[in-house]
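Quick one, probably user error.
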């Protein structure tokens, strides 16, 4: 999401009278790759770019491809194969052993249907998972309107009415439901009623992770800075009289404790109890458990959190067995963190692991590939 925001920011500052642009999007990955599907790179015809589609090894060629798409005013799908031992193949010798398809789409500035404008529309709406359908390959046009490079926002099956392909709409809707359950973006191939082949990149675009920090002590600062650096949203719940101007400029939102219930807390939200006051954290834990947040972290040693749970149980406010897995206390991964900055790193890493359904252990111990294929 941070990359998308940077691309939108750069796009908003383009002078359409002097500058043209194209968007490069990774729409398929087979095997290993530094970036996954959905990675983007905005390229200007003056040679500047924002974002990236690899670790830097493909960007030089991508710059040429994007400028060619701008010159031809036509999208193109380019395959980068780093598995072949071919001296003429871009990326050979990198050892990635992957095949990457990148769609280069010239942008019609001011056209509300261009891919960056659609991303802007999605980010301007309330927190929700958006579904984008990008036409990767298609000979000719679909219903005399849609062609390769076009992007459609999918809300439900009626979103596909404009394509006038009822069988395709049914099949595609079923695929989307399956992908939503898996939380996975992927390309899919379909056959149109007239026999033509259509490839669509089905992309799930979830909202950014929102981390709610309940506390205002000095260790909030490095945690907020790191949260913002990785592109997440930071919300601090604290007494406004104890908030410094510096913290106000770092956070996305400051909320008074009495207004906690007004916050939109969804499946992409993490809550960290870090008031450094036993009674306050004990009071906040049941409030946090009433939300949909899948991650609830508590600072402090294990004995402290166990005391909180025991006291709540004695007061008939026991935490259910189904809620216990949501509580991470002490919060953070076991990296030997000592300073507030290192503790912040361990907490952010643990939150990422929880949302990725990983255990946070060493990658060298992982069985199989780093990313699902």
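Nope, works fine. Designed sequence:
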């Amino acid at each position: 999401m941070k990359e998308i925001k940077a691309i939108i920011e750069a796009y908003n500052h383009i002078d359409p009278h002097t500058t043209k642009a194209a968007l490069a999007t990774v729409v398929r990955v087979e095997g290993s790759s530094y970036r996954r599907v959905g990675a983007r790179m905005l390229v200007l015809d003056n040679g500047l770019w924002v974002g990236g589609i690899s670790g830097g090894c493909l960007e030089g060629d991508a710059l040429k491809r994007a400028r060619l798409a701008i010159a031809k005013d036509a999208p193109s799908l380019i395959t980068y194969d780093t598995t072949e031992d071919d001296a003429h193949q871009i990326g050979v010798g990198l050892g990635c052993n992957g095949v990457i398809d990148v769609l280069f789409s010239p942008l019609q500035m001011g056209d509300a249907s261009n891919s960056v404008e659609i991303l802007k529309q999605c980010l301007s709406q309330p927190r929700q998972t958006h579904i984008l359908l990008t036409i990767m390959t298609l000979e000719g046009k679909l219903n005399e309107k849609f062609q390769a490079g076009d992007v459609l926002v999918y809300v439900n099956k009626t979103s596909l009415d404009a394509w006038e392909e009822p069988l395709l709409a049914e099949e595609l809707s079923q695929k989307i439901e399956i992908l939503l359950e898996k939380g996975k973006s992927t390309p899919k191939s379909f056959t149109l009623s007239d026999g033509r082949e259509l490839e669509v990149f089905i992309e799930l675009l979830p909202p950014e992770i929102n981390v709610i920090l309940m506390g205002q002590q000095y260790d909030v600062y490095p945690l907020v800075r790191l949260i913002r650096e990785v592109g997440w949203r930071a919300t601090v719940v604290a007494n406004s009289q104890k908030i410094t101007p510096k913290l106000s400029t770092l956070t996305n939102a400051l909320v008074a404790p009495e207004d906690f219930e007004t916050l939109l807390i969804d499946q992409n939200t993490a809550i960290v109890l870090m008031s450094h006051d036993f009674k306050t954290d004990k009071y906040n834990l049941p409030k946090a458990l009433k939300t949909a947040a899948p991650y609830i972290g508590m600072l402090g040693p294990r004995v402290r959190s166990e005391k909180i749970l025991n006291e709540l149980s004695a007061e008939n406010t026991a935490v259910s067995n189904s809620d216990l897995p949501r509580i991470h206390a002490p919060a953070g991964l076991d990296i030997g963190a000592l300073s507030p900055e290192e503790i912040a790193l361990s907490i952010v890493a643990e939150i990422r692991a929880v949302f990725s359904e990983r255990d946070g252990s060493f990658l060298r111990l992982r069985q199989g590939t780093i990313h699902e294929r």
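The first strand starts at residue 21 and ends at 31.
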